[in-house]
Q: What sequence folds into this?
């Protein structure tokens, strides 16, 4: 039962993310855009949680919905953009003409990605739990060798592989016994990510911290008032 | 968890193209910047989906998640720089419309 709820939640949060993303574009007030962006990022974070990437979900909320949103709101409220909003006189036809090229390019791009994703091997052979009945009828008619073939070819259509905390515990600490590993109940997501980050990607991590430092210095240098003397 | 990988990819592509539409349509450069952030987070979504789908024995591959973490960190630095640039632009031009960025030299 819980798998059905989790798959329904996926579609709920996906719809919320897409609707809020559209609201970011179409709201005329930048503050409303920023708020919708926060909701969009919250939906993305929920999807990341659903995929078992808890650390990235938390980072998504803290960094995007926390820090970046506050930065945007500060700038929107600091700059007086009301003069900007008034001068474009509202005309439906003109705004549609102005939007058409961009919307066309983005629409073609989006449908291209969707078609490419659906053309992936086995992408349309979706094992929906809601229509397992139809599948079982089909199996009766065709035979038993069909499902294994779908499992082989349909990597993109099959559900994402189940997380296995026992194997993860064994990967994290090979010294522990099988019984101790089997007793693990939750995924050590943060530990596995941190292990990878601080061993294989340590140099990149240090360079990244320099990029953040450069960003901070650059932001201060750029936003400082230039004296005319 | 029985959402196929293709659905994550479609969602990520749709989110990316909505962000692209915003970048192309909107003139307010702050909203353009928000849409850029949405495109980055759409890319993150598909990275994490691939990390799960390519997992071995129920343990995800963590290299894409490390990359997603790097993307988030670079996005944070980029927002700081970009908003500073927008503030500087507003000081120079008194507007945040990208249509006003049509001269190289201040007259």
A:
């Amino acid at each position: 039962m819980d798998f059905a709820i989790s798959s329904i939640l996926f579609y709920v949060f996906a719809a919320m993310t897409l609707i809020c993303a559209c609201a970011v574009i179409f709201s005329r007030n930048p503050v409303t855009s920023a708020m919708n962006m926060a909701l969009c990022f919250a939906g993305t974070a929920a999807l990341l949680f659903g995929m078992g990437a808890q650390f990235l979900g938390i980072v998504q909320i803290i960094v995007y919905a926390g820090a970046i949103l506050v930065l945007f709101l500060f700038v929107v409220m600091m700059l007086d953009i009301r003069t900007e909003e008034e001068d474009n006189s509202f005309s439906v036809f003109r705004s549609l003409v102005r939007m058409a090229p961009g919307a066309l390019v983005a629409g073609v791009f989006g449908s291209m990605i969707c078609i490419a994703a659906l053309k992936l091997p086995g992408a349309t052979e979706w094992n929906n739990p809601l229509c397992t009945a139809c599948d079982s009828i089909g199996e009766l008619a065709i035979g038993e060798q069909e499902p294994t073939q779908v499992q082989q070819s349909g990597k993109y259509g099959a559900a994402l592989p189940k997380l296995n905390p026992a194997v993860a515990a064994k990967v994290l600490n090979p010294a522990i016994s099988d019984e101790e590993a089997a007793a693990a109940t939750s995924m050590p997501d943060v530990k596995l990510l941190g292990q990878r980050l601080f061993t294989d990607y340590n140099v990149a991590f240090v360079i990244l911290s320099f990029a953040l430092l450069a960003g901070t210095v650059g932001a201060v240098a750029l936003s400082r008032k230039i004296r005319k003397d | 968890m029985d959402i196929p990988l293709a659905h994550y990819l479609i969602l990520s592509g749709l989110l990316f193209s909505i962000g692209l539409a915003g970048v192309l349509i909107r003139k307010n450069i702050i909203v353009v910047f928000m849409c850029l952030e949405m495109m980055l987070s759409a890319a993150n979504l598909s990275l994490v989906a691939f990390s799960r789908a390519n997992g071995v024995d129920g343990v995800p591959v963590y290299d894409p998640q490390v990359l997603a973490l790097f993307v988030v960190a670079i996005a944070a630095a980029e927002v700081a720089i970009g908003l500073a640039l927008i503030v500087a632009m507003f000081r120079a031009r008194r507007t945040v419309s990208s249509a006003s960025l049509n001269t190289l030299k201040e007259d």
User: Anything to note?
Assistant: Residues 63-93 of chain B form the longest helix (31 residues). Chain B is about 70% helix and 0% strand.
